[in-house]
Amino acid sequence: MIIELTALHYVYLLFIVAIIVAMIMKKDITLICIIGILAIGLIGTDSVYKSVMGVFNSFIYATKELMPTILIISVITAMSNVLAISGINGEIVSPFKAVIKSYWIAYWVIGLVMMILSWFFWPSPAVALIGALFLPIAKKAGLPAIGVAIAMNLFGHGIALSSDYVIQAAPKLTADAAGIEVSKVVAASVPLTITMAVVTTTVAFYMLRKDIKSGNMPIEYEVENDEIEKEGPHLITSKVLRKLLALTIFMLFAIDIGTMYIYKLQGGDATALIGGTAIFILSIVSIMSYKKEALENITNNLVKGLQFGFKIFGIVIPVAAFFYLGDSAFSDIFGNILPSGSNGIVNDLGVALSNLVPLNSIIASITLTIVGAITGLDGSGFSGISLVGSIARLFSTAIGDGVETLTALGQLAGIWVGGGTIVPWALIPVAAICGVDAFELAKRNLKPVAIGLAVTTVVAMFLI
């Protein structure tokens, strides 16, 4: 059945193009999304007040959809803060000190630890921990600071953040925009993530090894962070107790992973399990750390975590609000004003496109990678991945298959570019803690990431 496209469809498509252009020009897209929602409301309802209400209601809708994700990141951040202050974080990674004896071991161990911690805590909290504890060890083993920064970037902000298998913030955004289940995006991303991970980390290590042997290393800066040079005072003074708590926390999260597998928990259920465990750990460690002041400090850390969560997702809400209009959110916000038989703006556009353009898996894969990379140019990694979900749905409708793979591919490209691997302004935290130049770090990451995206795109073509 062919749905006749209306002004709503064309205006929505026009604003998608405007958003892409703005991202290419490295401009913020929040205002464009707001104007887009207002314009769609005016065309669809012929009412100014309903359109204005629709803008606010779309924000409420997006916030409700994203709230579990915002909360889990906030809770994880709050827990991470307490673990750092108590000294437990140091005990979690202390066993690796005896393992790192050469620069190549340092590269892979730091990367793998960063990846694992980033899956559970997200890269932002993990950066300070890994940098503070591993940088001096890595230098003694012969790995320069730029090598530490590269490993942290590629494994944390690249592999872990783009896959996001535990917290599932990224697949939640893209899956909602694509109109599919989170579990399908996660499953489809596995072969793409493995491909990207192997190619980028191997190429980066090969290039780094050549530079180390030739002595072609960049200037390192003095890092103004006492935590890197020595351990500061900890709220939990007993080293034995810190080790016991570190082991307990590791076991609790291991039990969570086992529970997810046994009971097949995914999406919101998996997030709730991790979040509940993090709150439990936050509470117990706070009581043992702060003692009589535990009640106040638990609240303070939760507030700091919420501030971080909303700071990260504040830019995402208006963008997600616009792209949610492409599917089920439209009728909830503006009422049932789409043409009879419509399956949503994005689906309608997909059907129309399939009748006009002979799309295939090759063109669709290349386009999703390019669009995903463009969405990452703002340095967020998350602000535009709703767009790739919508485009993946549109293209899959046109070619008749592959929505999960296309969605995962666009998500991967967007976060690898913007999440903190090759956009200089997103690399500042890692560069600062390692004492290297952010632009130099971006330059060294560029070739491995570009090669990885090219190879992964080819793999996606065969999977669709």
UniProtKB/TrEMBL annotation:
Keyword Nucleotide-binding tagged: no
Segments traversing the membrane: 6-24, 31-49, 69-90, 102-122, 185-208, 244-264, 270-290, 302-325, 381-400, 412-434, 446-463
Presence of the UniProt keyword Transmembrane helix in the record: yes
Keywords associated with the record: Membrane, Transmembrane, Transmembrane helix
Name of this protein: Transporter
Gene source species: Clostridium bovifaecis
